[in-house]
Amino acid sequence: MKSETVARAWAVVRHDGLTLGFTDHDQTLNFEGISFRPDSGLSAKAVVQASGLSVDNTEAMGALSDSAITEVDLLAGRWDSADVRLWDVDWNAPSNRRLIFRGRLGEVSRSGGAFRAELRGLSEPLNRVLGRVYHQRCSAELGDGRCHFQLSKPGYWSEGVIESHDAGQRFILSGVSGHDARWFERGTFVVQSGAAEGLRGSIKIDLPLSGSRRDVELWSGLGQHPQVGDRVKLIAGCDKRAETCRLKFLNFLNFRGFPHLPPEDWLIAPQVSR
User: Fold this and answer.
1) Across 51-55, average pLDDT
2) For the chain, is the Cβ count within 10 Å smaller at the N or the C terminus?
3) What's the whole-model pTM score?
């Protein structure tokens, strides 16, 4: 590969399958079924790679445009953890190329009509602290491989329609009935139709109103606001207490906490000798 004919090409794939290709060459490149466009304004700093299990890191920068990566989609989190691949490619013969980076988009910032995104290499997950925490509350996530609870069970989810909303954070829903107050707190709010389809939020407050109406507030607003008439799905939440696992989910056999562990106050309290 001659240095004077080398260009860089990027492929970015979102979780919903949308794939975009970019290049710093002045013409479109085509390979692996992707068209890499030259008009994106996407570029990157030098890729930092090390031997062993060190984390690869670099930074991508680009212009926000309606035809590529939009500010609305970034705010909505649609590009969070998107898969990224970077090649050195001979623009005279695209089959002559070398993959030099693969990872995911990390933290994204925006200003002045442009974005800056951190790129995290495949070894990034190896930075996580591993090991079990001994605590009274459950250490599993509701519905994961350690919890084993099936959230698709009847009664643990419900669908409704947005009647009104406040800044995309507090919603009045219709069509949700048969659930106790706070049933969905700490659960998940999923938009199922409209421009915000697929976006998720964590539920802070969940209270029934008259009839089949419900007042639901999220911990933080969704990046793209759902609109009146959009359908949403509510999934039950868990506060990780043993009592909740036993009575609400009937799943105490899979409880991953230690409810009889003495509290910290007991550990530091002076012991009375006999």
Assistant:
1) 49
2) C
3) 0.71
